[in-house]
Amino acid sequence: MAGKEAAIKELRQIPGVGISIANDLWNINIRSISELKGKDPQKLYDSSNKFAGVVQDRCLLYVFRCAVYYAETAPAERTPEKLKWWNWKN
User: Fold this and answer.
1) What is the CA radius of gyration of the chain?
2) First to last CA, the chain
3) Which of 2, 4, 27, 18 has its CA nearest to residue 66?
4) For labelling alongside 34, which of 13, 53, 68, 71 has CA 20 to 30 A away?
5) For residue 77, how many other CB atoms are within 10 A of its CB?
6) CA 70, 42, 60, 48: dihedral to nearest 10 degrees?
7) Cβ pair 67, 17 in contact under 8 A
8) pTM for the full predicted model
């Protein structure tokens, strides 16, 4: 369980990711921020929906978009507005 706890703690560093979304990421085999690099947020969302057995709120997709941006962008180059999940709407 320590592995999961450590992963959840790391994932919660991502803006907009609380314990629930960190668990959603865990459930689709994302264990660290670095594992989000190169991922397609839509595929993450689809996988999470499949795992949950329901279509979840699209806000989750927006958080996944923000999370991938966070993982792929160096801290000094991150735009503050892009660290707000609601700015990732269609």
Assistant:
1) 12
2) 37
3) 18
4) 53
5) 7
6) -110
7) yes
8) 0.95
Pick the closest to residue 67 from 20, 29, 14 (CA basis). 14
AA letter at 14 = I
Q: What is the mean pLDDT of residues 74-79?
A: 97
Nearest to 70 by CA among 83, 84, 53: 83
Question: Under a CB-based contact definition with an 8 Å cutoff, are residues 14 and 67 in contact?
Answer: yes
pLDDT in tens, 17-65: 999 999 999 999 999 999 999 999 999 999 999 999 999 999 999 999 9
Stated length of the chain: 90
Q: Among candidates 21, 27, 26, which has minimal Cα distance to 6?
A: 26
71-90: average pLDDT: 97
In the chain, the number of structural domains is 1
